[in-house]
Amino acid sequence: MTDRASGGRRARAERSTTPPGPEAAMEIAARFLGARPRTRWELVRRLQRAGVEEAVLVATLDRLAELRYVDDAAFARWWGEQRDRHAPRGLRMIEAELRQHGVGRDVIEAYRADHAAPERVPEDAALPGSEAERARDALERHLRGRPLPADPRALQRIGMFLMRRGFDPETVRATIRLAGSPEVTDELS
Length: 189
Prior knowledge:
mainly alpha; Arc Repressor Mutant, subunit A; 65% helix
């Protein structure tokens, strides 16, 4: 019976009676980090799922932090940058996503302070620097070159789309107004 027929690596790991040692834990973590940066919380969950003992888990995480492979603040910056590049979101939505990845409150507050500053200049000039620029970018991507509709109901749907992306009502109204529709209703709040 092959490993594939028996369920592969996961089945082998479950059959193993000894928990992974330091080297195996480091290999598990390295493979997990190979796809994208991870938070400390995500790594803890992955190593616990693999059956790594607490002492080995702590030592592995400490070593990865020492090597700068695990840094929640760097993860928060990376996550926000990825959102700005590929799927612009409001600061509220990014903060919620960071919480889902186990980023601590202090790191999120530092991220908010860094990104909410009006004089913030992103490292990459192509990235939006403010919440208003993020909202404008999200609107442009949503419209895909089409003109902004004049129908109030269509404008309301666009406003709700932006609000679901984490933008506050004030930013949504200003963005739609700047895009060419002065008839933005107050129903977007």
